[in-house]
Amino acid sequence: MPVRIALCDDNPEDRRLIQSTLADWGLARGVQFTTDEYDSAEAYLFAHAEPGSHDLVLLDIEMGGMDGVTLARRLRMDDDNVQLVFITGYSDYIAEGYEVSALHYLMKPLKTDKFFSVLDRAYARIRKNERTLTLETADETVRVTLPEIRWLEVSHNYVTVHARRPYTVKKTLRELEEALDERFYRVGRSAIVNLSYIARVTKTEVHLTDGSVVPLPRGAYDAVNRAIIAQN
Asked: 210-231 pLDDT, tens per residue?
């Protein structure tokens, strides 16, 4: 399936140059993609009220109305998977880029080799995020992408998968663990956490960015921290 790219920039000449470089990258890498252009943040939001419309969003920062950082915050509230790349002539917003987990911050005028490198990284992440977990609950069968999953917990003979909403399935934790990847870490016998969502770790608990608190077995503190460092 083609990579879905959005380009949001109020300068038509900059959009043309970025589109040309994207075409060169796609040809060089053998990657198919589609690109939607927007001349303002408001135009993007008007066209795409639902999350998940694009895999990669290339954002200018200073535009006529809403700025690119504000748009990025809006997108990140609803979509943890979208890759965000700022392309701008201003260097004053780097801290805000980290705040919204932007993949990179590119300065204009673009350097082709640097842009290609960032696009390569974005594409690798997009491919990784395509992996899904199929869950059969009492009421439905759903496919959940791995990056959506915050953590999993055991209760008797059931496992609850905490994603955008919780799904409870009659499976063992080990069965589900086999379908996960290296971003997940097993915390004792009863829980698995997505390392990407860990906000902080104490001697007795793992605190996730969504507010969840996972009990940490005695002696597991150092191992969890090593796993976080290894993932980064």
From this structure: 899 999 999 899 999 999 888 7
Task: Give the tens place of pLDDT for each residue, 118-151.
Answer: 999 999 988 877 788 889 998 899 888 888 899 9
Helix or strand (DSSP H, E) at 145: strand 141-145
AA letter at 5: I
How many other β-carbons are positioned within 10 Å of the β-carbon of residue 225?
Answer: 12
Cα→Cα distances 53→5, 45, 79, 127, Å: 9, 11, 10, 16
Residue 44's nearest CA partner among 70, 19, 18, 80 is: 70
In angstroms, the Cα distances linking 160 to 135, 136, 211 are 10, 11, 16
Q: Token pair of 232, please?
A: 């980064």
- Helix or strand or coil: residue 139? coil
The predicted model scores a pTM of 0.64
What Å distances lie between residue 107 and 72, 92, 93, CA to CA? 17, 11, 11
Own/partner pairs, 161-170, CB within 8 angstroms, 24+ separation: 161/133, 161/135, 162/210, 162/212, 167/135, 167/137, 167/142, 168/137, 168/138, 169/135, 169/136, 169/137
Residue among 85, 88, 79, 115 at smallest CA distance from 103: 85
The residues, any chain, with a CB within 8 Å of residue 68's CB and separated by 6 or more, are 8, 41, 59, 60, 61, 62, 86, 88
Sole residue written with tokens 């399936």: 1
Order of strands, edge to edge, in the sheet holding 191-194?
166-169, 158-162, 151-155, 191-194, 184-187
